[in-house]
Structures are given as structure tokens and as C-alpha cells.
Amino acid sequence: MEKRIVDIDVVRGFAVAGLPVVNLGLTVGKTHYPTAGPLASVIYDDLFLHRFVTIFTFLFGVSFALVLHGASERAARPRLVLVRRLVALIAFGVFQLFLLDGNLQLFIYAVLGLVVLLPVSYLPRPAMPTIAVVLLLFSLPFAGEGLGVGAAVKLVSISMALLVLGASVVAYGIHADLPRRGPEIRTVFLIAAPLAVVTNVLNHGATTVFGSVIDELAMLSTSVAYVTGLLLLLRTRARRPLVAVLSPLGRMALTNFLVQAAAATVFAAVVVDIRDWNYVAITFGLTILFVAVQSVLCTLWLRRFRYGPFEWLWRCATWLTVVPIGSTPTLSSEGTPS
Q1: I want to staple 221 with a disulfide (CB 3.0 to 4.6 A). Which of 152, 196, 198, 201 is the partner?
Q2: DSSP alpha helices (H): ranges in 144-278?
Q3: pLDDT beyond 50 at 334
């Protein structure tokens, strides 16, 4: 089998590393969380809020498509394999919803995978990016923040678009051809980075239609700039440290995500009210410390085991068999639970 696609693992690890900055505050609750200063607020809003979860969602689309691709080579009914994988993800989502931080993220991915990705897999390849673009355009006019109807419609539309877009990357073989895509990646970065700067400067929230459009453009362009910028860095001397730190996080993304949720839940229950604490130390400092520990633990774990614990459970449920978990030569991303 082919080796894992390390660049995808690194990008996935990068996404996982940025999630706690937002999720910790959501778990503790706004009324019990420190207030950000002007600079910290700008950094949070422009560089973190919705940016990393956008990448995370896109990569779930990539992962689902990789599973279907791998299953088509080893199973008589590959889409049934994908259905089992998505149903198993629903179980993880219910676990997170009721026993951890109450986050619906995994549950939403699974349901949208069943509702959108499964039907889309029957369509001709050119239809996939077309559907993704249509869904993004459909989401643009919806204004609203928090729990409003407009915000909900926008969230679902964007999530569907990102999942389909991720699947499109696999359908066109881009995921397997990243080392030869340097010029294209550089071009996309040179477009996305300036657009991210401009839209973030203009962004004042999604309470109006114009504001909603700018907010979405800022979110998407920043996320694209992050991904393409990171892929370009992987072509420099920074590759070795980036792979060493981020790849283990990415290979155990589901485990890390659920551990982060569990840690945030315990933290919120123990400290209760941290309004008087330092915002920067809690939001950014604690994230750096926690993610660094996760990276070390993942590295040590993967020296002995092929999969993270939740990745292993997910794979067993996907294939309806007890999969060996012992360490072996690194395998292909196709069909893996990462």
C-alpha cells in the first residue's frame, strides 16, 4: 500500500492545534470567561474564530472521500462502508454532545455526510466543485450571528460546501499530487493572503447582508491562506519540525479533538468562573501548552500503535472487524480513519 500523505496529516494537525483557542471559551461560557483586550480581540476574531474549524470541516470531506476511494478497492459495496463510518461518527458525536462539551460538530459532519456526500458520490466528477460553489454562494446573503436562523442556515450551507469541496480534492487526485502542485499552491496563496487581509480589515460582523458576505470571505480566505501557506512551508527547511510536531496530531485528530473537549469540560467544571483571569494566558497560552503536550503524547503513542484509540474504534466500526492496532509501517491515507 502507499504511504500516508504526510502533508495532509500536517494540515489536519494544524487545524486540531487551533481549535482549543475557540472551543475553550465556548465550553466555559461567555459570562464566566475573561474579557479580551482590543488587540487580543482582533487576533481572536481575525485569525482564529471559524478559521480552524473551516479547515477541519474541509478535511473531513477529504477523509470521507479517501475512505470511499479505499473501500472501492477492497469492498463489494464501498458506499456501505462509508455509511458505517458516518453512523459510527454519529455515535462519537452523541458521546461528545451528552457526555463532554455539548458540541454538535461531529454529529453535524456525520449527518451532512449521509445527506450530502453520499448522494454526491454518485454524480460525475465536475458536479462536485460546482455544487460546492453553489452552496457557498447560497450561504452568502444569510446574515445573523449566534443561534439565529440566518446563522444556522449559513453554518449548514458552508459546512456542506466544505465537505463537498474536500471530496472534490480527492475526486480530482489533487491530494495525491501535492508535491507537484507547488506553482498552483503558490498562486492560490498569493490570491488568498491579500484577500484575507482586506476582508478582515473590513469585517465588522455578520449582522447585515453586506457584513455577512465580508465575514464569510474573511473566514474562507484566511483559512485558504493558512492551508496553502503551510503547504508552501512544507517545501522549505521548516518541513522537518512541522512534520514532527503536527503530523502526530493529525494522525490522531479524532482522539485529540475528543480529548480537548473532555479537558475543556473538566476545566469548566472545576474552575467555574475565570472572569478575573488573564485572557491571553488562558486563551492562547493554555492552548499552546495543551497542544504541545498532546503532540508529545501522540508521538509516543504512535511509536507503539498504528492508530489513536478513537481512530482504532472508528476503523473497527467502519470495517466491522477488529483491526490490528500494533505499530507497523505507515499505511495509506485511503481507508484510514484519520
Answers
A1: 196
A2: 149-171, 182-202, 209-233, 239-251, 253-271
A3: no
